[in-house]
Specification:
The protein has helices at 42-51, 66-69, 99-116; strands spanning 2-15, 18-23, 26-32, 55-56, 62-64, 72-77, 122-124, 132-146. It is an alpha/beta fold. It has a single domain (2-146), classed as D-tyrosyl-trna(Tyr) Deacylase, Chain: A. Strands 1, 2, 3, 6, 7 and 8 form a six-stranded mixed beta sheet that branches. Strand 4 and strand 5 form a beta hairpin. Helix 1 packs across helix 3 (99-116).
Length: 150
């Protein structure tokens, strides 16, 4: 499971000019699932995400979490996080979970985030759709998180 996390002033996702998700201050999370990923990864990933201390405190240090700043989450599925480019110029996605598995994990991840942090707004993209994601990266702060089944 791979997460590309961006601290944002705002972010939104549209499908065919229809707004499907929007947050103000918070985290835009692009999430991809690999072939070996299982639901057992989701609680740890959700816990890490909602407790990341990446927002500035009064001294300007990254020391505050989403909850402490009243931020939201915009979670967008993105299988291309598993694009492999070791050979050639066209990415291979053989490491990405098949759509049925990825959809199930994505939906379960959203549920886990809402379960662990009912006070944090969770918005989402539309699984499998061609999406337009717009954002204002705050900082910029961009982090890569990876979780592997044991």
């Amino acid at each position: 499971m791979r997460l590309l996390v961006q601290r944002v002033s705002w972010a939104e996702v549209r499908v065919a000019d229809r707004l499907v998700g929007r947050i103000e201050k918070g985290l835009l999370v692009l999430v991809g699932f690999g072939t070996g990923d299982t639901p057992g990864l989701l609680p740890k990933a959700a816990h890490k995400l909602v407790n990341l201390r990446v927002f500035s405190d009064e001294a300007g240090r990254m020391n505050l979490s989403l909850r402490e700043v009243g931020g939201g989450l915009l979670v967008v599925s993105q299988f291309t996080l598993y694009g492999e480019l070791r050979k050639g110029f066209r990415p291979s996605f053989v490491g990405a979970a098949p759509p049925e598995q990825a959809r199930s994990l994505y939906e379960a991840f959203l549920e886990e985030l809402r379960r662990q942090a009912p006070d944090i707004p969770v918005e989402m993209g539309e699984f499998g759709a061609k999406m337009a994601v717009s954002l204002c990266n705050d900082g910029p702060v961009t982090l890569w998180l990876e979780f592997e089944a044991v």
